[in-house]
Amino acid sequence: MGRKRVFGIGVVAVAMMLGGLSVAPIAVADETATSDVVASEVAVRAENDEFRLDFATPNVDPQAMLPGMMVWMTAHINPIAASEGDWSIYLYPKAGGPWRQLAEVDLDSNGDWNGETGGRVIIPTDLAPGEYVLQLAIPNTGGYTDGNQEITVLEPPTPIMEVHTRLNTTPFVMAGNLIPNGFYTLQWLDADNDVVASEEHVQADNDGLIMRDFAPLAGRTGTYAFAVYREGFDAPAGSVSFTLANGAPLMPSIEGAGDSTGDTSGEGVSTAAQGDEFTITGKGAEPNTTYWLWLHSEPVLLGAVVTDTSGAFNTTVKIPADTTPGNHNIYLTIDKEGYTPVAELDLEVTPAKSGDTSAQPETKPSDQSGDAHTRSEATPSDDEKKALPDTGAGIVVVLGVLVVSAVIGVGFHLARRIVR
C-alpha cells in the first residue's frame, strides 16, 4: 500500500508539471499584512500608473478642431508624480515650436482633474491651421510620451448671417456656422459704421449659433448692420445689413392686382374667380432670392418667384378651378414646403363666371355618336315602324276568353234548374 500511495503521488505531481498546473499557496492563519507592505504595494501601483489626458466633450473630433473652440477635458496623474509640481495643459506644434499654456490642472488626492465632468480648455483663437499636441506637463520639464492628445486645427468656416422676419413672430438676427462653443464679440453698427451697441465674450451654442432680437436698436429707423468678431480679431467674421422702421426690420409685403371688394372691416380684399389668372406683386423681400406662393385654406402651391435686385417681383398665378368659393389667404414663404411664411394677402374666391367652362371638370367623350346633350331625337325608320313579330301571346288571350264564357254559361244553366 505504501508503494502504491507514493507512486500515485508521483504520477499526480508529474501530471501537474506537464499540464502547467500550479497549486495556490494556503494562507497561514497567523500571517497578516503590515502597513509597510501595503504602502509598498501602493507605491508600485503609483509608479506604474499612466498619465491620461482625455476629452470629456461628447462627440468631439480631435482631427477637426477649430480656433476658439472650447472643449472639456479630464486628466489623471499618479499620486506620486502629482506632488512633484504644478501641472498644466500645454499646446505646441507637432512639428516642434513654442509651448502655450492653455489650462492649469488642479489635481485631487487620487491624481484626478475634474473627474467625469472635465475642465474647460479653449483652443487659441489666433491658432493657424495645422497639427498640434495637447500635453499634460509641469512647466519647463519638457514633454512626455503619454498624457497627451494629438489634434488637427482646421480653418474656421465662414459664418452664415441672416435676418429672420416671420409672420406673427418677433424678428431676430442669427449668426450661424460659428465655432461651436466659441466666443465672439457682437456689434450693432449704423450706416456710418459707428458702433451703436455691443456685447463681449458671447458664447455660441453647441451648434455654432448666436441669435439676438432687435432690442438694442429700439425705436430706430434707417440702415443698420449686425457683425460678429472672433475674440482677438479686429476684422468681423461675418455681418449682415438690414433696414429698420421704428426699431423693427422691414418685412416683405404682397398685394393682389385683381378686383377688390370691401370686407367687414372696411379694408379692401382681392377677389378672383375659380380658374382665373391672378396677378401678385411683392416688395421688401431679399434681393435675387427665390420665394414660393401658397394658397390656403387647403394648401396648394401656386408657383415660385425670384425677386429682382430691389427685392420686388411681379407674377401671375392661376387659381385652381376646384377651389372652394369663400375667403382664402395667399402666403409668400421662404421654403418650398410652405412652412415659413413672411407675407400674406387675403383673397376672396368667387364661383366661376357664367359660361366659363375653364372651371368645369373635364368629361370623357362618349363612345356613341353623341351624348344626351348633343344628340338630336332619332326619327323612326320604315323598318322600325313594322309590327312586332308574332310570339303566340294572341292565341293564349283567345283561349282564355272562351274558357271564361263557358264557365259563365254553366253557371246560368244550374241557376235555372234550382229555380224550377
Strands, helices and their partners?
Layout (H helix, E strand, L loop, with lengths): L1 H17 L16 H14 L3 E4 L14 E7 L2 H4 L5 E6 L6 E5 L7 E2 L5 E4 L7 E8 L10 E6 L6 E5 L7 E5 L6 E7 L5 E9 L6 E4 L8 E9 L7 E8 L2 E2 L3 E4 L2 E4 L5 E6 L3 E7 L6 E7 L3 E7 L6 E6 L7 E8 L7 E10 L42 H27 L1
Parallel strand pairs: 19-25
Antiparallel strand pairs: 1-2, 2-5, 2-6, 3-4, 3-7, 7-8, 9-10, 10-13, 11-12, 11-14, 14-15, 15-16, 17-20, 18-19, 20-23, 21-22, 21-24, 24-25
Characterize the structure shown.
Helix content is 15%, strand content 36%. The chain has helices at residues 2-18, 35-48, 79-82, 393-419, and strands spanning 52-55, 70-76, 88-93, 100-104, 112-113, 119-122, 130-137, 148-153, 160-164, 172-176, 183-189, 195-203, 210-213, 222-230, 238-245, 248-249, 253-256, 259-262, 268-273, 277-283, 290-296, 300-306, 313-318, 326-333, 341-350. It is an alpha+beta fold and 420 residues long. The model is unreliable at 1-47, 260-266, 361-393, 395-399 and 414-420 (pLDDT under 50). Among the domains are: 52-153, Sandwich (Immunoglobulin-like), CATH 2.60.40; 160-249, Immunoglobulin-like, CATH 2.60.40; 253-350, Immunoglobulin-like (Sandwich), CATH 2.60.40. A 6-stranded mixed sheet has the order 18-19-25-24-21-22, with no helix packed on it. Strands 12-11-14-15-16 form a 5-stranded antiparallel sheet, with no helix packed on it. Strands 1, 2, 5 and 6 form a 4-stranded antiparallel sheet that branches.
